[in-house]
Structures are given as structure tokens and as C-alpha cells.
Design goal:
The chain is mainly alpha-helical. 70% of the residues lie in helices and 5% in strands.
């Protein structure tokens, strides 16, 4: 068994999955032992197929087709199977030998059947198992070169009808549908392998279209249908590589597909076909892309395709033209253009576009802040410090927040004019607060705290109000010099927490008590703190976790 132990299972699965796996041991069924592996089904949300690898491994490994297992994790279902194997350790050699004997016996029996009996057996199994029947029909059609038959079967495989309820495939059935749809990929690849790559190319495109038309009606939370889409795209690329289709026709399909909703499912990149397209095909690809973009200059897919092709050819002007045809009102597109121009080394044009973005934004309160940061940085790099201050001031005036205040301060300090700029900024915030604007008052408290102007922050908090987090910050900053004021804040916040339960509340309360103790120490009143804690313990004695935390902190 390769030294499989519960400790090893716990180490690889983690405490949570190991604990949950114990509860699934009774759900393990159809266990099969082989050389170095054991397979089983485990019933969870649905039935999952699990394979555990054994023999000579320092860490257990395996696979499970549950969502968590498909992400490469050692899931609770693997733990359940591992625990089952451990429980049967003494019987493992016998079980392995029995599995080998069964396999040899089955082979001997099958080889002894006549052709007619074997055919009857296969037919019987096909009647029992629809998936087996479909797989064999596809193999037969591929062997005969029956493209029409394969096309018919592919359409059946991609039909959601048998799995859908009220036109939608729920999560519980999505995996079975994805497994069936995956058989279409096998059929297409079989066509390519049998020398019918041209037919495989056409069929791959049809399959991609069919899957794209139903994907929104399938709960593909696990991403298995997305993988089928990727596999179909790969099958199409393989078929094209073998068939060498007309470059212009291929280019036309690639552009049409890139603009179709199915593009998100397959993630086909037209540039992956560059060697198949050649110069003529790439020219056609760009021509079709331009035509599509000119017909719909604001379409996301059209713009993305144009930009992708232009960037691959380092055609900065085309990239800019695509962006410029659909400028966002908040300056975001101007920023994208400026970055493209900077990358191309055209810094003067980049600066012009960034400044234009600021000018053309109607309300700087809604401007893309990344554009402001970009332009301010360019001003600072070129020693235009006064321009950087002006930009930051205008942005702060339009959008008065702690962040824009900090950014204005940084620019003004660099330009050696912070004293003047600070007074102007505080005047705006005080005016906001005087208009009984709670938000304005809180921003004022925030910036004063950030400036370490504690006395002014206390005054602003008392006049205009503050939230609990600001009061706590005020108390913490002021405790060395204003312990009595800080103590009053701590007591008020602690009183509120004594009415709450849960570890988070208890941890906050203990933190406040430590600050209260320090405040009393600074005031020279440790006895008052001892009496306060005694009363608090008596009132909160039923909260055992709180009592434990108090003991741990010597309170």
C-alpha cells in the first residue's frame, strides 16, 4: 500500500478536507484494485469517480472529477477512498490478485466467444448504455468515412434537449452533457486522422457554432463546457493544419468567429493561424477586420480584434485610431492612447492626449483617477511641479477625499508650497462641514488626523461629528498627551462592545481595555481601572471566551 496512513492523508488534504472525508467513508462504493491504483465511486452532491495512486509515494496522490478535485486538490472524496483502503489493508494483496484474476478471466472469456456471440454481447451492452452506443456509432462512421453520419451524430451530441428542464441544463446535469459534448471533439479528430481534414475543418466550425448557441443555457460553473470549447478550437486548428484551407476563406471565418458570441467559449486567437494564413491570408484578415470595425466602431469585439492585429504589427497609429473613434467621457480612453504613445516613444503626443483627456472630462469628480495620476507623474518627471500642483488641486476641489488630499499634499510638498495649498484645502473642507454635511466633516477629521494635527482633529470631531473608527484613531494618537479625553472615548466604545458577542467583538474589547489601562496609568489612577475591570468581569462572566481572553492578557 506504499505506507498509506491517516497522517499522510491529513497532511496532503488538510484538516478540513480530512475531517469531511471521514463523513464520506460510507458513501464509497464499487471499489476496484489494480497495480498501483484503486478506483471507486463516492456519492457526494452527485456520484464522483475517484482514483487513488498507491505504492512507493511519500505523499498520497490521485484524481477526482468533483469541482474541487478538478482544480488539482486532494479532496474529501479521495480522503474517503484512502480511509477505505487503510481499513482494508490486510486484504489488499488478496484484492489485487482477485482483480488480476478477474481481468484475465474476462479476457479469456471474450476471446472464446464466437463472432456472432461477441456481436450479440456488444449489441446488448449498447441497448443498456446509450453513451457506449454513441461512441461506437461515431467510430463506425469515422471508419467508413461517413461525414454525413458523423455530422448527424455531432448534432445529437451537442443537443441539450435530453438534459434540459424548461430549456436549461442545471448544474447536476451539466457534467453529463459536457462529457457527451466532448465526444464530438473525438469524432472531429478522428476525421482528421483518417485523411478527411477538410471535412473535419467544416465540422469543427459547425460544432463550435452549435456549442456557442447553447452555452448560455447550461450551468457551466465547473468550466467543463468551456474546456470542450477549447478542445473544439484545438481540433479546428489541427484540421486546418492538415487541410491547408484557402487563406482568404480561413481569414474570413476567423474574423466572423472573433465577432461571434462563441468566441468567448473557444478563445480562438486569429494570430495562432498566422503561419497557415501566410501573407495573403494575413492581409485578408486585416481587411475583414477593418471592414467590421468601420461598420461598428463602438463594438467591443470589433475594437478588440483591431487592436490585437494592430499591436501584433506594431501599428500604433491604427491602435490610436480605434481608441479615438470611441472616447470614454471619463478620460479612460485618452489614458490608453497616452500609454500606447509612451510605449512607442512618442512622449510629446502622449502628454497632449493625457492633457486633452483632462480638458474633455466634463466633471473632474468622475474622471478616471489613473489619468490624473498618469499626467501628474509626467509633470513631475519633466519638472513641471506647478502644473502637477494645479492638476492635483483641481482634482481635490472636484472630489474632496482623504486620498486626493494626500495626493495634493505630496505634489505641493515637492513644489515647496504646501502651507498655502493646505490652508486652501482645509477652507474647502470646513465649508463642507459647516453646511451640516456629515461626509465633509468626516473627511475633515481624516485629513487632520493624517496631518497629525491632533488638536484640530479633536475640535473638528466635536463640532462636526466623527464615526467610531475616527474617535478611536483620535484617542490612540492623543493618549500620551490627552489621556483623560482618550479614556472617555475608550469607555464609550467599550460599553457598546459589552452588548455584543463573538470572538471579533471580544478581541476588540480586550484591545480597548489595554488602552484604558494605559490611560489610567498615565493619569495615575490604576485603582479606578482595577475596579472597572472587576465590575466588567462580574457583568460579563457568562461569556467564557471573553473571560479566557481577559486572563490571557492579565486583565
Amino acid at each position: 500500500m506504499g505506507g498509506l496512513t491517516e497522517a499522510k492523508l491529513k497532511a496532503v488534504a488538510g484538516e478540513r478536507s480530512f475531517a469531511r472525508g471521514r463523513a464520506y467513508v460510507d458513501e464509497v462504493s464499487r471499489v476496484e484494485f489494480g497495480d498501483g491504483w484503486v478506483r471507486a465511486s463516492v456519492r457526494g452532491t452527485e456520484r464522483y469517480e475517484v482514483e487513488l495512486l498507491l505504492g512507493g509515494r511519500r505523499r498520497p496522490a490521485g484524481t477526482c472529477d468533483c469541482p474541487y478535485g478538478q482544480e488539482g486538490n486532494f479532496c474529501k472524496h479521495l480522503v474517503a477512498l484512502g480511509l477505505t483502503v487503510i481499513a482494508q489493508e490486510a486484504d489488499l494483496p488478496r484484492l489485487r490478485n482477485a482483480a488480476r484474476d478477474r481481468a484475465r478471466g474476462l479476457d479469456a472469456w471474450l476471446m472464446g466467444l464466437s463472432r456472432e456471440d461477441l456481436l450479440a454481447l456488444v449489441r446488448e451492452e449498447m441497448d443498456e448504455d446509450g453513451n457506449l452506443r454513441r461512441r461506437l456509432e461515431l467510430r463506425a462512421a469515422s471508419a467508413r468515412g461517413d461525414v454525413a453520419g458523423i455530422r448527424s451524430r455531432v448534432r445529437e451530441l451537442l443537443d441539450i434537449g435530453p438534459f434540459a428542464q424548461y430549456g436549461y441544463v442545471e448544474y447536476a446535469d451539466a457534467g453529463a452533457y459536457a462529457d457527451q459534448a466532448g465526444q464530438a471533439v473525438t469524432a472531429i479528430r478522428s476525421l482528421t486522422a483518417s485523411g478527411q481534414a477538410t471535412d473535419a475543418t467544416v465540422l469543427a466550425r459547425e460544432a463550435i457554432g452549435l456549442l456557442g448557441s447553447v452555452v448560455e443555457r447550461v450551468d457551466d460553473s465547473d468550466g467543463r463546457l468551456g474546456q470542450v470549447g477549447t478542445d473544439l478550437a484545438d481540433a479546428h486548428h489541427e484540421a486546418c493544419r492538415a487541410a491547408r484551407p484557402d487563406p482568404e476563406e480561413l481569414a474570413q471565418w476567423l474574423v466572423a468567429h472573433a465577432l461571434d458570441e462563441a468566441a468567448d467559449l473557444t478563445d480562438v486567437d486569429p494570430l495562432d493561424y498566422e503561419d497557415l494564413l501566410g501573407e495573403r491570408g494575413m492581409a485578408a484578415l486585416r481587411r475583414y477586420a477593418v471592414d467590421a470595425w468601420q461598420a461598428n466602431r463602438t463594438g467591443w469585439a470589433e475594437k478588440h480584434l483591431m487592436q490585437r492585429l494592430a499591436k501584433s504589427g506594431r501599428d500604433t497609429d491604427t491602435v490610436i485610431a480605434v481608441h479615438a473613434a470611441d472616447l470614454a467621457p471619463n478620460g479612460h480612453t485618452h489614458l490608453l492612447i497616452a500609454r500606447e504613445l509612451d510605449t512607442a516613444g512618442r512622449t510629446a503626443e502622449a502628454l497632449e492626449w493625457a492633457e486633452r483627456g483632462i480638458r474633455e472630462t466634463e466633471d473632474l469628480a468622475g474622471v478616471d483617477t489613473a489619468l490624473v495620476d498618469h499626467l501628474a507623474d509626467r509633470y513631475a518627471r519633466t519638472d513641471r511641479l506647478a502644473d502637477a500642483v494645479t492638476l492635483r488641486r483641481e482634482h481635490f476641489t472636484a472630489r474632496r477625499t482623504l486620498l486626493t488630499y494626500q495626493q495634493l499634499r505630496a505634489a505641493a510638498v515637492a513644489a515647496d508650497c504646501w502651507s498655502t495649498e493646505r490652508e486652501k484645502a482645509l477652507e474647502l473642507l470646513r465649508a463642507d462641514a459647516e453646511r451640516t454635511d456629515a461626509y465633509g466633516g468626516r473627511v475633515l477629521v481624516d485629513v487632520l488626523l493624517d496631518d497629525k494635527d491632533v488638536d484640530a482633529a479633536w475640535q473638528a470631531a466635536r463640532e462636526h461629528g466623527a464615526h467610531d473608527g475616527q474617535w478611536l484613531a483620535l484617542a490612540d494618537q492623543s493618549r500620551p498627551t490627552r489621556p483623560a479625553d482618550s479614556l472617555a472615548v475608550y469607555h464609550r466604545l467599550a460599553a457598546r462592545l459589552t452588548r455584543e458577542t463573538g470572538m471579533h467583538a471580544y478581541e476588540q474589547l480586550v484591545s480597548l481595555l489595554l488602552s484604558i489601562r494605559d490611560s489610567h496609568h498615565r493619569l495615575g489612577t490604576p485603582g479606578d481601572f482595577a475596579a472597572y475591570v472587576t465590575d466588567l468581569r462580574a457583568a460579563q462572566k457568562r461569556k467564557r471566551n471573553l473571560m479566557r481572553l481577559l486572563d490571557e492578557h492579565g486583565l
